Amino acid sequence: MRRVWKTEEIEWVKQNKDKFSSRRELLEALNKQFNSNKTLVQVKSLGNRYHISLRYFNFSWSDKVKWLRENKHKYDDREDILNDLNKQFNTNYTLLQIKDMSTKYKLNLPLANRRIRQGLMNGRIKLRGVSQREVGEESYHSGKNIFVKTDNTNIFKDNFTLKHRYLYEQYHNVKLKEDDCIVFLDGDHDNFSKENLYRISRKVHSLMSGHRLHGTKTDKKTVIKCLEWEEKILSLKGKMGVQHGTT
Length: 247
Prior knowledge:
The structure is a single chain. This protein is mostly helical. It has eleven helices and five strands. The protein has three domains: 7-50; 62-117, no CATH class; 133-242, no CATH class. The chain has helices spanning 7-16, 23-34, 40-50, 62-71, 78-89, 95-104, 113-122, 124-128, 163-172, 202-210, 220-246; strands at residues 138-142, 145-149, 160-162, 180-184, 197-201. The N and C termini lie far apart (64 Å).
């Protein structure tokens, strides 16, 4: 089987990787240098295999980073920062490049909120009709899960709750915690009756997964009770171990 990478190609990449502004430019020069037809996927794999740092973009950003740090507080949207940055330095950077630098230099720039909202309106929300749903109505499906609209905020993910969690809260007049999990006792994800929805802790849920008991044919409530006792015993042993170690 022919080797994908020759030794001289690997050495060339190591020596020249910082001379190009992007992986694509590096790839084009590499193929021209060796009359080859390598792809971006192969270049990425090369970097991973030989621990060669191949950033998407390699710009000299010292003055731009300084400007971003000094001016970011003036903006609520990343797209506005990008436009003024390009005017200030007569550049044509993109949102992807700004994101890359924000991550690298820990700038904590605001999100491109207008782009995000527009994307949601043009895609996910429009296609599924979510924006037209009223609070309390089923909004969309994701795999086996059904989501219910529970709010009307500007943050898409905060507006929806899993239907089985929503109904459990309605049935029992409680507010579930992040650590609470709701399981279907009969294994039927379409059975949302009050008797079929049961609250367990995330630890017990993990124990069920570890023992592969989520699909058990035995009475699931009995299995859960046993695991809840197992979780209590493990917790008690842990506390006793800590107390013993400190005495």
